[in-house]
Design brief:
Layout: E1 2-8, E2 11-20, H1 25-37, E3 43-54, H2 56-71, E4 75-79, H3 83-91, E5 99-101
Parallel strand pairs: 2-3, 3-4, 4-5
Antiparallel strand pairs: 1-2
Helix pairs in contact: 1-2
């Protein structure tokens, strides 16, 4: 699994690839914490087009990100999830918690 972070004007993007699970807890938190603390960032986007798998720990990490972002008045969007990952997000009703988008 790899995690890359980019800041583009008012948004920060966390791009992930591979398997998203408990083993990435520290790396994921280290990726989003600077975005939460950055006053210039108003939205955090999690690019998921290359995520092949996610488990319940990954769902929990996304919820924690969302809670911390809301406390900092920032929005969180999940981008381009597909296949099994998209199904997991749908079953977990994450569309009620997150803006889920499919960018072209």
């Amino acid at each position: 699994m790899s995690i890359n972070v980019q800041i583009n004007e008012r948004s920060g993007r966390i791009a992930m690839s591979g398997r998203f699970g408990f083993a990435l807890h520290r790396d994921f938190k280290n990726a989003y914490s600077p975005l939460i603390d950055n006053a210039a960032v108003h939205e955090i986007e999690v690019e998921m087009s290359n995520v092949e798998y996610m488990d319940s720990a990954a769902l929990g990490m996304l919820i924690l990100l969302n809670e911390q972002a809301k406390a900092a008045n920032k929005a969180v969007s999940l981008l381009n999830a597909s296949g099994t990952v998209q199904q997991v997000l749908h079953i977990a009703n994450f569309s009620k918690l997150f803006n889920i988008r499919h960018d072209a």
